[in-house]
Amino acid sequence: MDYKKFLNDVAKNRQPLVLRELFALQQSAPKDVVFLSAGAPNPDTFPIKSGTITLHDGTAIQLAGDKMVQCLQYGPTPGYPPLLQQLGLLTATLHSPPRWQESDVLVTTGSQQGLQMALEMLLTPGQTVVIEEPCYSGVLSVISPYSPRYLRVSSDGEGIIPESLSAALDSCTPDNKPKAASVPQFLYTVPTGANPTGVVTSEARRRHIYRLCCQHDLLILEDDPYYFLHYHDKPPPASYLRLDVEGRVLRFDSFSKVVCAGLRVGWVTGPRQLISKLNLHKGTAVISTSSMPQVIISELLRVWGREGFNQHVSLLRQSYKHRRDAMLDAANKHLKGICEWHVPEAGMFLWLKVLGVNDTWDMVLRRGVLAKVVLVPGHAFMTDPTRPCPYLRASFSTADATLIEQGMRNLAELIEREVELQGNKAAGHRTRNTMLREADTKAALTTKH
Ligand SMILES: Cc1ncc(COP(=O)(O)O)c(C=O)c1O
Questions:
Q1: Is the CB of residue 261 below 6 angstroms from any atom belonging to ligand 1?
Q2: pLDDT tens track, the chain, 449 positions
Q3: Which residue of 16, 36, 224, 263 has the lowest C-beta tally within 10 Å?
Q4: Ligand 1 atom nearest to CA at 264
Q5: Which residues sit opposite 220 in a β-bridge?
Q6: Ligand 1 pocket member 70 (CB < 6 A)
Q7: Would 447 be classed as within a structural domain?
Q8: Beta-carbon neighbour count of residue 207 at 10 Å?
Q9: Which residues contact 79 (CB under 8 A, 6 or more apart)?
Q10: Any atom of ligand 1 within 6 Å of the Cβ of 155
Q11: Is the CB of 189 under 6 A from ligand 1?
Q12: Using CA of residue 40, residue 41, residue 44, residue 46, what is the dihedral sign?
Protein backbone atom coordinates (compact mmCIF):
# COMPACT_ATOMS: atom_id res chain seq x y z
CA MET A 1 0.00 0.00 0.00
CA ASP A 2 1.09 3.56 -0.62
CA TYR A 3 0.91 5.21 2.80
CA LYS A 4 2.24 8.59 1.66
CA LYS A 5 -1.20 9.67 0.50
CA PHE A 6 -2.45 9.43 4.11
CA LEU A 7 0.31 11.55 5.62
CA ASN A 8 0.11 15.29 6.10
CA ASP A 9 3.07 17.47 5.10
CA VAL A 10 4.51 17.61 8.62
CA ALA A 11 4.60 13.82 8.83
CA LYS A 12 6.08 13.56 5.31
CA ASN A 13 8.84 15.99 6.28
CA ARG A 14 9.93 14.13 9.40
CA GLN A 15 13.48 12.83 9.01
CA PRO A 16 15.43 10.29 11.08
CA LEU A 17 17.27 11.87 14.01
CA VAL A 18 21.02 11.24 13.79
CA LEU A 19 21.48 11.04 17.55
CA ARG A 20 18.70 8.47 17.90
CA GLU A 21 20.18 6.42 15.04
CA LEU A 22 23.58 6.46 16.76
CA PHE A 23 21.93 5.44 20.04
CA ALA A 24 20.35 2.46 18.30
CA LEU A 25 23.70 1.57 16.73
CA GLN A 26 25.36 1.66 20.16
CA GLN A 27 22.85 -0.88 21.48
CA SER A 28 23.68 -3.40 18.77
CA ALA A 29 27.41 -2.77 18.03
CA PRO A 30 30.24 -5.10 19.19
CA LYS A 31 31.50 -4.30 22.68
CA ASP A 32 35.00 -3.18 21.51
CA VAL A 33 33.63 -0.21 19.54
CA VAL A 34 34.33 3.00 21.47
CA PHE A 35 31.29 5.25 21.35
CA LEU A 36 32.09 8.87 22.06
CA SER A 37 28.82 9.91 20.49
CA ALA A 38 26.15 9.54 23.16
CA GLY A 39 24.91 12.50 25.18
CA ALA A 40 23.57 10.12 27.83
CA PRO A 41 24.41 10.99 31.44
CA ASN A 42 26.96 8.85 33.27
CA PRO A 43 25.14 6.11 35.24
CA ASP A 44 27.77 6.35 38.00
CA THR A 45 26.26 9.71 38.90
CA PHE A 46 22.69 8.37 39.32
CA PRO A 47 21.68 8.66 42.99
CA ILE A 48 19.31 5.66 43.01
CA LYS A 49 20.88 2.25 43.60
CA SER A 50 18.14 -0.37 43.83
CA GLY A 51 14.50 -0.99 44.57
CA THR A 52 11.99 -3.76 45.09
CA ILE A 53 8.47 -3.96 43.67
CA THR A 54 6.32 -6.30 45.74
CA LEU A 55 3.18 -7.84 44.21
CA HIS A 56 0.02 -8.59 46.21
CA ASP A 57 0.91 -12.29 46.30
CA GLY A 58 4.31 -11.47 47.84
CA THR A 59 6.37 -11.95 44.67
CA ALA A 60 9.30 -9.51 44.74
CA ILE A 61 10.77 -7.93 41.62
CA GLN A 62 14.30 -6.70 42.31
CA LEU A 63 15.56 -3.70 40.38
CA ALA A 64 19.31 -3.45 40.83
CA GLY A 65 22.59 -3.40 38.90
CA ASP A 66 22.22 -3.20 35.12
CA LYS A 67 18.44 -3.45 35.37
CA MET A 68 18.33 -0.36 37.57
CA VAL A 69 20.67 1.45 35.19
CA GLN A 70 18.23 0.63 32.38
CA CYS A 71 15.42 2.05 34.54
CA LEU A 72 17.30 5.31 34.98
CA GLN A 73 18.88 5.80 31.55
CA TYR A 74 17.53 6.98 28.18
CA GLY A 75 16.21 4.06 26.15
CA PRO A 76 15.68 3.31 22.45
CA THR A 77 12.80 5.37 20.99
CA PRO A 78 10.66 2.35 19.93
CA GLY A 79 10.74 0.99 23.48
CA TYR A 80 12.66 -1.10 26.05
CA PRO A 81 13.78 -4.06 23.88
CA PRO A 82 12.63 -6.91 26.17
CA LEU A 83 9.21 -5.24 26.50
CA LEU A 84 8.92 -4.73 22.74
CA GLN A 85 9.57 -8.42 22.29
CA GLN A 86 6.94 -9.36 24.89
CA LEU A 87 4.38 -7.03 23.33
CA GLY A 88 5.07 -8.45 19.90
CA LEU A 89 4.49 -11.97 21.22
CA LEU A 90 1.30 -10.97 23.06
CA THR A 91 -0.13 -9.17 20.02
CA ALA A 92 0.78 -12.02 17.66
CA THR A 93 -0.79 -14.58 20.00
CA LEU A 94 -4.00 -12.65 20.65
CA HIS A 95 -4.65 -11.31 17.15
CA SER A 96 -2.67 -13.42 14.66
CA PRO A 97 -2.35 -10.42 12.33
CA PRO A 98 -2.33 -11.62 8.70
CA ARG A 99 0.37 -9.05 7.80
CA TRP A 100 2.56 -9.61 10.85
CA GLN A 101 5.79 -9.76 8.80
CA GLU A 102 5.18 -6.20 7.54
CA SER A 103 4.15 -4.86 10.96
CA ASP A 104 5.92 -3.21 13.85
CA VAL A 105 5.22 -2.33 17.47
CA LEU A 106 5.96 0.97 19.22
CA VAL A 107 5.74 1.59 22.96
CA THR A 108 3.87 4.78 23.90
CA THR A 109 3.15 6.80 27.02
CA GLY A 110 -0.34 5.33 27.40
CA SER A 111 -2.44 4.78 24.30
CA GLN A 112 -3.33 8.48 24.38
CA GLN A 113 0.16 9.37 23.15
CA GLY A 114 -0.13 6.86 20.31
CA LEU A 115 -3.52 8.26 19.30
CA GLN A 116 -2.31 11.85 19.48
CA MET A 117 0.75 11.10 17.34
CA ALA A 118 -1.24 9.08 14.80
CA LEU A 119 -3.91 11.76 14.44
CA GLU A 120 -1.27 14.45 14.12
CA MET A 121 0.37 12.41 11.37
CA LEU A 122 -2.88 12.23 9.37
CA LEU A 123 -4.89 15.39 9.99
CA THR A 124 -4.91 18.60 8.03
CA PRO A 125 -6.99 21.65 9.02
CA GLY A 126 -10.56 21.54 7.74
CA GLN A 127 -10.30 17.88 6.74
CA THR A 128 -13.37 15.64 6.61
CA VAL A 129 -13.34 13.20 9.53
CA VAL A 130 -15.69 10.23 9.88
CA ILE A 131 -16.59 9.81 13.50
CA GLU A 132 -18.80 7.58 15.58
CA GLU A 133 -20.81 9.78 17.92
CA PRO A 134 -20.64 9.71 20.93
CA CYS A 135 -16.84 9.49 20.80
CA TYR A 136 -13.98 9.20 23.34
CA SER A 137 -13.32 12.78 24.43
CA GLY A 138 -9.52 12.37 24.44
CA VAL A 139 -9.64 11.90 20.67
CA LEU A 140 -12.09 14.72 20.04
CA SER A 141 -9.71 17.00 21.93
CA VAL A 142 -6.96 16.17 19.40
CA ILE A 143 -9.16 16.39 16.29
CA SER A 144 -11.40 19.38 17.03
CA PRO A 145 -8.66 22.06 17.02
CA TYR A 146 -8.13 21.15 13.34
CA SER A 147 -11.69 22.50 12.71
CA PRO A 148 -12.64 19.36 10.78
CA ARG A 149 -15.84 18.73 8.87
CA TYR A 150 -17.26 15.94 11.01
CA LEU A 151 -19.23 13.20 9.25
CA ARG A 152 -21.18 11.63 12.11
CA VAL A 153 -21.89 7.93 11.93
CA SER A 154 -24.63 6.33 14.04
CA SER A 155 -24.21 3.32 16.26
CA ASP A 156 -26.52 1.10 18.29
CA GLY A 157 -26.14 -1.75 20.83
CA GLU A 158 -24.05 -3.71 18.27
CA GLY A 159 -21.62 -0.90 17.41
CA ILE A 160 -21.25 1.31 14.34
CA ILE A 161 -24.15 0.79 11.91
CA PRO A 162 -22.44 -0.13 8.61
CA GLU A 163 -25.25 1.36 6.52
CA SER A 164 -24.76 4.68 8.27
CA LEU A 165 -21.00 4.51 7.62
CA SER A 166 -21.60 3.57 4.01
CA ALA A 167 -24.04 6.46 3.47
CA ALA A 168 -21.62 8.91 5.08
CA LEU A 169 -18.74 7.71 2.91
CA ASP A 170 -20.83 7.71 -0.28
CA SER A 171 -21.82 11.30 0.44
CA CYS A 172 -18.25 12.43 -0.01
CA THR A 173 -16.71 10.30 -2.71
CA PRO A 174 -14.85 12.43 -5.27
CA ASP A 175 -17.33 11.34 -8.01
CA ASN A 176 -20.28 12.81 -6.17
CA LYS A 177 -18.53 16.00 -5.18
CA PRO A 178 -15.45 16.52 -7.32
CA LYS A 179 -14.53 19.76 -5.57
CA ALA A 180 -15.27 18.62 -2.04
CA ALA A 181 -12.63 19.93 0.39
CA SER A 182 -11.44 16.45 1.21
CA VAL A 183 -12.32 12.84 1.49
CA PRO A 184 -11.95 11.02 4.84
CA GLN A 185 -8.60 9.37 5.47
CA PHE A 186 -9.43 7.18 8.46
CA LEU A 187 -12.08 5.77 10.72
CA TYR A 188 -11.45 6.02 14.48
CA THR A 189 -13.28 3.40 16.51
CA VAL A 190 -13.30 1.79 19.98
CA PRO A 191 -14.56 -1.74 19.24
CA THR A 192 -14.65 -3.17 22.80
CA GLY A 193 -16.53 -1.38 25.57
CA ALA A 194 -16.62 1.96 23.77
CA ASN A 195 -16.11 5.01 25.92
CA PRO A 196 -18.79 6.22 26.78
CA THR A 197 -21.37 3.62 25.61
CA GLY A 198 -19.83 0.31 26.75
CA VAL A 199 -20.84 -1.26 23.42
CA VAL A 200 -18.86 -4.12 21.86
CA THR A 201 -18.97 -4.06 18.06
CA SER A 202 -20.07 -7.49 16.84
CA GLU A 203 -17.78 -9.49 14.58
CA ALA A 204 -20.25 -9.37 11.69
CA ARG A 205 -20.30 -5.59 11.92
CA ARG A 206 -16.48 -5.43 12.14
CA ARG A 207 -16.15 -7.48 8.96
CA HIS A 208 -18.67 -5.29 7.16
CA ILE A 209 -16.98 -2.08 8.40
CA TYR A 210 -13.55 -3.39 7.40
CA ARG A 211 -14.85 -4.08 3.85
CA LEU A 212 -16.25 -0.56 3.62
CA CYS A 213 -12.93 0.91 4.74
CA CYS A 214 -11.15 -1.11 2.05
CA GLN A 215 -13.64 0.05 -0.61
CA HIS A 216 -13.22 3.69 0.40
CA ASP A 217 -9.48 3.42 1.09
CA LEU A 218 -9.60 4.42 4.76
CA LEU A 219 -7.13 3.60 7.49
CA ILE A 220 -8.70 2.23 10.68
CA LEU A 221 -7.52 3.56 14.04
CA GLU A 222 -8.54 0.72 16.35
CA ASP A 223 -8.42 2.03 19.91
CA ASP A 224 -8.94 -0.98 22.18
CA PRO A 225 -7.93 -0.22 25.80
CA TYR A 226 -10.89 -2.25 27.16
CA TYR A 227 -10.05 -5.34 25.11
CA PHE A 228 -9.55 -7.46 28.24
CA LEU A 229 -12.59 -6.06 30.08
CA HIS A 230 -15.49 -7.80 28.36
CA TYR A 231 -18.19 -9.43 30.46
CA HIS A 232 -19.65 -12.21 28.34
CA ASP A 233 -18.47 -15.81 28.24
CA LYS A 234 -18.03 -16.01 24.46
CA PRO A 235 -14.54 -15.47 23.00
CA PRO A 236 -14.09 -11.80 21.99
CA PRO A 237 -14.86 -10.85 18.36
CA ALA A 238 -11.87 -10.72 16.00
CA SER A 239 -10.05 -7.41 16.25
CA TYR A 240 -9.66 -5.20 13.18
CA LEU A 241 -5.94 -6.05 13.31
CA ARG A 242 -6.92 -9.72 13.01
CA LEU A 243 -9.04 -8.90 9.94
CA ASP A 244 -6.47 -6.65 8.30
CA VAL A 245 -5.34 -8.34 5.10
CA GLU A 246 -4.53 -5.02 3.37
CA GLY A 247 -2.38 -3.27 6.01
CA ARG A 248 -4.76 -0.44 6.87
CA VAL A 249 -5.12 -0.90 10.66
CA LEU A 250 -3.24 0.93 13.38
CA ARG A 251 -4.12 -0.73 16.68
CA PHE A 252 -3.74 1.04 20.03
CA ASP A 253 -3.38 -1.05 23.19
CA SER A 254 -2.81 0.02 26.75
CA PHE A 255 -1.84 -1.37 30.14
CA SER A 256 -3.84 1.41 31.83
CA LYS A 257 -7.00 -0.61 32.41
CA VAL A 258 -5.40 -4.03 32.67
CA VAL A 259 -2.36 -3.36 34.91
CA CYS A 260 -2.40 0.24 36.10
CA ALA A 261 -2.79 3.69 34.59
CA GLY A 262 -0.03 5.65 36.33
CA LEU A 263 2.86 3.75 34.75
CA ARG A 264 1.58 5.19 31.44
CA VAL A 265 2.54 2.33 29.15
CA GLY A 266 0.68 1.54 25.94
CA TRP A 267 1.66 0.31 22.50
CA VAL A 268 0.75 0.78 18.84
CA THR A 269 0.85 -1.99 16.27
CA GLY A 270 0.54 -1.52 12.53
CA PRO A 271 2.18 -1.25 9.11
CA ARG A 272 5.94 -0.69 9.41
CA GLN A 273 5.91 2.51 7.29
CA LEU A 274 3.36 4.17 9.56
CA ILE A 275 4.97 2.98 12.79
CA SER A 276 8.32 4.38 11.62
CA LYS A 277 6.67 7.81 11.14
CA LEU A 278 5.23 7.60 14.65
CA ASN A 279 8.67 6.64 15.91
CA LEU A 280 10.18 9.79 14.38
CA HIS A 281 7.44 11.89 15.97
CA LYS A 282 8.00 10.19 19.32
CA GLY A 283 11.78 10.74 19.15
CA THR A 284 11.13 14.44 18.69
CA ALA A 285 8.47 14.66 21.38
CA VAL A 286 9.90 12.60 24.26
CA ILE A 287 13.16 10.95 23.01
CA SER A 288 12.06 7.73 24.71
CA THR A 289 9.21 6.53 26.93
CA SER A 290 10.10 6.65 30.68
CA SER A 291 12.33 3.65 31.18
CA MET A 292 11.37 2.55 34.70
CA PRO A 293 7.66 1.93 33.94
CA GLN A 294 8.64 -0.10 30.87
CA VAL A 295 11.07 -2.21 32.90
CA ILE A 296 8.44 -2.75 35.62
CA ILE A 297 5.79 -3.87 33.10
CA SER A 298 8.31 -6.10 31.37
CA GLU A 299 9.37 -7.72 34.65
CA LEU A 300 5.74 -8.14 35.68
CA LEU A 301 4.93 -9.93 32.43
CA ARG A 302 8.04 -12.06 32.91
CA VAL A 303 7.23 -13.20 36.45
CA TRP A 304 3.55 -13.77 35.61
CA GLY A 305 4.17 -15.69 32.40
CA ARG A 306 1.17 -16.20 30.12
CA GLU A 307 -0.73 -18.14 32.76
CA GLY A 308 -0.24 -15.54 35.49
CA PHE A 309 -1.29 -12.79 33.11
CA ASN A 310 -4.45 -14.71 32.16
CA GLN A 311 -5.27 -15.31 35.81
CA HIS A 312 -4.87 -11.61 36.55
CA VAL A 313 -7.14 -10.70 33.60
CA SER A 314 -9.75 -13.19 34.73
CA LEU A 315 -9.84 -11.70 38.27
CA LEU A 316 -10.00 -8.22 36.83
CA ARG A 317 -12.98 -9.11 34.67
CA GLN A 318 -14.80 -10.68 37.60
CA SER A 319 -14.21 -7.58 39.70
CA TYR A 320 -15.46 -5.12 37.06
CA LYS A 321 -18.36 -7.37 36.06
CA HIS A 322 -19.46 -7.39 39.68
CA ARG A 323 -19.44 -3.57 39.74
CA ARG A 324 -21.17 -3.39 36.35
CA ASP A 325 -23.93 -5.68 37.66
CA ALA A 326 -24.23 -3.60 40.84
CA MET A 327 -24.72 -0.50 38.70
CA LEU A 328 -27.31 -2.22 36.51
CA ASP A 329 -29.22 -3.40 39.61
CA ALA A 330 -29.17 0.12 41.04
CA ALA A 331 -30.22 1.60 37.69
CA ASN A 332 -33.11 -0.86 37.41
CA LYS A 333 -34.18 0.04 40.94
CA HIS A 334 -33.90 3.83 40.74
CA LEU A 335 -33.80 4.96 37.11
CA LYS A 336 -36.51 2.92 35.38
CA GLY A 337 -38.87 5.25 33.57
CA ILE A 338 -36.57 8.26 33.91
CA CYS A 339 -33.55 6.98 31.95
CA GLU A 340 -32.82 4.55 29.12
CA TRP A 341 -29.65 2.48 28.65
CA HIS A 342 -28.04 -0.53 26.96
CA VAL A 343 -26.32 -3.16 29.10
CA PRO A 344 -22.59 -2.38 28.73
CA GLU A 345 -20.92 -5.58 27.54
CA ALA A 346 -17.41 -4.34 28.26
CA GLY A 347 -15.45 -1.41 29.67
CA MET A 348 -16.25 0.78 32.64
CA PHE A 349 -19.28 2.88 31.74
CA LEU A 350 -23.06 3.01 31.67
CA TRP A 351 -24.40 5.49 29.10
CA LEU A 352 -27.70 6.93 30.24
CA LYS A 353 -30.26 8.83 28.21
CA VAL A 354 -32.20 11.02 30.62
CA LEU A 355 -35.88 11.24 29.69
CA GLY A 356 -37.64 14.55 30.07
CA VAL A 357 -34.39 16.51 30.44
CA ASN A 358 -33.30 18.18 27.26
CA ASP A 359 -29.84 19.10 28.48
CA THR A 360 -27.87 17.56 31.35
CA TRP A 361 -25.08 20.19 31.59
CA ASP A 362 -26.45 22.46 34.32
CA MET A 363 -28.15 19.60 36.10
CA VAL A 364 -24.79 17.88 36.67
CA LEU A 365 -22.33 20.73 36.83
CA ARG A 366 -24.44 23.26 38.77
CA ARG A 367 -26.71 21.09 40.85
CA GLY A 368 -24.86 17.75 41.02
CA VAL A 369 -22.60 18.45 43.99
CA LEU A 370 -25.56 19.71 46.06
CA ALA A 371 -27.48 16.56 45.16
CA LYS A 372 -24.39 14.52 46.12
CA VAL A 373 -23.80 12.88 42.75
CA VAL A 374 -21.57 13.85 39.83
CA LEU A 375 -21.36 12.15 36.42
CA VAL A 376 -20.02 13.28 33.06
CA PRO A 377 -22.52 15.26 30.95
CA GLY A 378 -22.84 13.68 27.50
CA HIS A 379 -21.60 16.87 25.81
CA ALA A 380 -18.01 15.76 26.55
CA PHE A 381 -18.37 13.01 23.93
CA MET A 382 -20.04 15.03 21.20
CA THR A 383 -18.43 16.68 18.19
CA ASP A 384 -20.42 19.85 18.95
CA PRO A 385 -20.43 20.20 22.75
CA THR A 386 -22.47 23.42 22.55
CA ARG A 387 -25.64 21.58 21.48
CA PRO A 388 -28.12 20.45 24.19
CA CYS A 389 -27.49 16.84 25.16
CA PRO A 390 -29.71 14.57 27.29
CA TYR A 391 -27.02 11.94 28.02
CA LEU A 392 -24.82 11.14 31.03
CA ARG A 393 -21.86 8.81 31.51
CA ALA A 394 -21.80 6.88 34.78
CA SER A 395 -18.60 5.05 35.69
CA PHE A 396 -18.67 1.85 37.74
CA SER A 397 -14.89 1.38 37.88
CA THR A 398 -14.03 2.75 41.34
CA ALA A 399 -17.17 3.00 43.51
CA ASP A 400 -18.21 -0.11 45.46
CA ALA A 401 -21.73 -1.57 45.35
CA THR A 402 -22.94 0.54 48.31
CA LEU A 403 -21.71 3.79 46.78
CA ILE A 404 -23.06 2.83 43.37
CA GLU A 405 -26.52 2.25 44.91
CA GLN A 406 -26.31 5.56 46.79
CA GLY A 407 -25.12 7.41 43.67
CA MET A 408 -27.96 6.06 41.53
CA ARG A 409 -30.51 6.96 44.22
CA ASN A 410 -29.12 10.50 44.39
CA LEU A 411 -29.14 10.68 40.59
CA ALA A 412 -32.81 9.66 40.48
CA GLU A 413 -33.67 12.47 42.90
CA LEU A 414 -31.55 14.93 40.93
CA ILE A 415 -33.32 13.99 37.69
CA GLU A 416 -36.78 14.17 39.23
CA ARG A 417 -36.07 17.66 40.58
CA GLU A 418 -34.61 18.67 37.21
CA VAL A 419 -37.65 17.45 35.29
CA GLU A 420 -39.78 19.51 37.67
CA LEU A 421 -37.50 22.52 37.32
CA GLN A 422 -37.41 22.34 33.52
CA GLY A 423 -41.17 21.69 33.50
CA ASN A 424 -41.73 24.78 35.65
CA LYS A 425 -39.44 26.81 33.45
CA ALA A 426 -41.30 25.61 30.36
CA ALA A 427 -44.61 26.37 32.07
CA GLY A 428 -43.25 29.79 33.09
CA HIS A 429 -42.08 30.30 29.57
CA ARG A 430 -45.49 29.32 28.23
CA THR A 431 -47.15 31.67 30.65
CA ARG A 432 -44.90 34.52 29.61
CA ASN A 433 -45.45 33.70 25.93
CA THR A 434 -49.17 33.44 26.44
CA MET A 435 -49.15 36.79 28.21
CA LEU A 436 -47.14 38.30 25.38
CA ARG A 437 -49.48 36.81 22.78
CA GLU A 438 -52.48 38.15 24.70
CA ALA A 439 -50.88 41.60 24.85
CA ASP A 440 -50.23 41.46 21.10
CA THR A 441 -53.80 40.44 20.39
CA LYS A 442 -55.07 43.23 22.62
CA ALA A 443 -52.86 45.76 20.85
CA ALA A 444 -54.02 44.50 17.47
CA LEU A 445 -57.65 44.69 18.49
CA THR A 446 -57.15 48.20 19.90
CA THR A 447 -55.57 49.37 16.64
CA LYS A 448 -58.42 47.92 14.58
CA HIS A 449 -61.01 49.77 16.55
C1 LIG B 1 -11.24 4.85 24.53
C2 LIG B 1 -10.00 5.30 25.22
N3 LIG B 1 -8.87 5.42 24.51
C4 LIG B 1 -7.72 5.81 25.06
C5 LIG B 1 -7.65 6.12 26.41
C6 LIG B 1 -6.34 6.57 26.99
O7 LIG B 1 -5.80 5.56 27.76
P8 LIG B 1 -4.28 5.57 28.26
O9 LIG B 1 -4.35 5.65 29.73
O10 LIG B 1 -3.72 4.29 27.76
O11 LIG B 1 -3.59 6.74 27.65
C12 LIG B 1 -8.81 6.01 27.20
C13 LIG B 1 -8.78 6.37 28.62
O14 LIG B 1 -9.74 6.43 29.31
C15 LIG B 1 -10.01 5.59 26.59
O16 LIG B 1 -11.14 5.44 27.27
A1: yes
A2: 899 999 999 999 999 888 878 888 888 889 888 888 878 899 999 999 999 999 999 999 999 999 999 999 999 999 999 999 999 999 999 999 999 999 999 999 999 999 999 999 999 999 999 999 999 999 999 999 999 999 999 999 999 999 999 999 998 866 554 434 468 999 999 999 999 999 999 999 999 999 999 999 999 999 999 999 999 888 899 999 999 999 999 999 999 999 999 999 999 999 999 999 999 999 999 999 999 999 999 999 999 999 999 999 999 999 999 999 999 999 999 999 999 999 999 999 999 999 999 999 999 999 999 999 999 999 999 999 999 999 999 999 999 999 999 999 999 999 999 999 887 776 654 444 444 444 454 444 444 33
A3: 36
A4: 9
A5: 187, 249
A6: no
A7: no
A8: 15
A9: 87, 105, 106, 107, 267, 288, 289, 294
A10: no
A11: no
A12: negative
Among the listed residues 17, 47, 63, 54, the one whose alpha carbon sits nearest the alpha carbon of residue 294: 63
Task: Write the CATH number for 8.
Answer: 3.40.640.10
Residues 294 and 382 in one domain: no
400 and 278 housed in the same domain: no
- Ligand 1 centroid from CA 29, angstroms: 37
| Total number of domains constituting the chain | 2
- pTM for the whole thing? 0.92
Same domain, 292 and 351: no
191 C-beta closer than 6 A to ligand 1: no
For residue 380, the CA-to-ligand 1 centroid distance in Å is: 14
Pocket flag, ligand 1, residue 138 (CB < 6 Å): yes
Residues 291 and 326 in one domain: no
- Assess whether 330 and 426 both reside in one domain: yes
Q: End of a domain among 307, 341, 368?
A: 307
Residue 39 Cα to ligand 1 middle (Å) = 33
Q: Which domain holds residue 329?
A: 314-437
Indicate if 154 and 283 belong to the same structural domain.
Answer: yes
Same domain for 124 and 99 = yes
Centroid of ligand 1 to alpha carbon of 10 (angstroms): 25
Helix/strand/coil for 53: strand
CA distance 255 to 110: 7
223 lines ligand 1 (CB under 6 A): yes
